[in-house]
Amino acid sequence: MLEKLVESLRNAPVVKKGDYDYFVHGISDGIPALNPKVLKEISEVLDEQLDLSKIDKIVGVEAMGIHIATALSLETGLPFVIIRKRQYGLPEEHEILKHTAYETSKLYINDLKEGDNILLVDDVVSTGGTLTAVINELKSIGVNLVDTVVVVEKGEGKSIVEEATGEEIKTLVKLDVVDGKVLADSLL
User: What is the DSSP letter of 52?
Assistant: First the structure.
C-alpha cells in the first residue's frame, strides 16, 4: 500500500534551509511535478481507511493541502474548504498566527462554523507549528474535528501536535532525512 508515494519520496532531493533538511517533493512543494497516480493512490487510501460517513467538509491548509483536499473531494463527493493565506474580511473569518521552523505567518479560516464535522488534511507535519495553530483555532470555533490526516510525518512533529492539542494525528508515511537522503516507509 502506498508504494508509488513511498518510492517517489525516497527519490526526492534534499536542500538545506539553515540547519533544517528540507525534502522537495510534489506532494509538499508542487515540484518536481507530482505524478497524478501518486495523488490518486493517496486519495483512494484515505477513502478506504477513514470513516467519512459523518464528515460534512474536508478542510485543507494552503498551499499544499489544496491538492490533497481536492483529490479526496473528487474521490468521495464531499465538499472542501481551504484555510487560506489571504485575508478576505468575510463575516466570521478567523485569523491564525502560525510558527514553523522557517517562517511566521498568518492563515485565515472561512466557511466553517460550530458543529461542522470536518476532516482536516495536510501534506507534511514536521515541526508541528502549522498544524498545532490550525487545530487550536478550529477547536476555538467549535467544529467537530472528526479526523486529522497528514500524508507525511517527518521528525517529531506528529507527537508535538498531539501533545499540544490533545488530538490524534493520522499519517500515511514516516520520513526522515539522513545524510542528505530521504528514508520513507508506509505506516499502513
Answer: -
Strands 170-178, 144-154: pairing kind? parallel
Q: Is 165 helix (H, G, I), strand (E, B) or coil?
A: helix
Tell me the C-alpha distance between 92 and 69, whole Å.
Answer: 22
pTM exceeds 0.90 = yes
Residues 6+ apart with CB under 8 A from 73: 58, 79, 80
| pLDDT tens by residue, 50-64 | 999 999 999 999 989
Separation CA 22–CA 17 (nearest Å): 7
With both helix axes pointing from N to C terminus, report the angle between 36-49 and 3-10 in degrees, rounded to the nearest 10: 130
CA 44 – CA 40 distance, rounded (Å): 6
Residue whose cell numbers read 461542522? 116
Task: Give the HSE-up count for residue 186: Cα atoms under 13 Å, Cβ half-sphere.
Answer: 12
What are the cell numbers at 96?
Answer: 491564525
Q: Spell out the domains of the chain, with CATH numbers in brackets.
A: 3-186 (3.40.50.2020)
CB neighbourhood size of 35 (10 A):
15
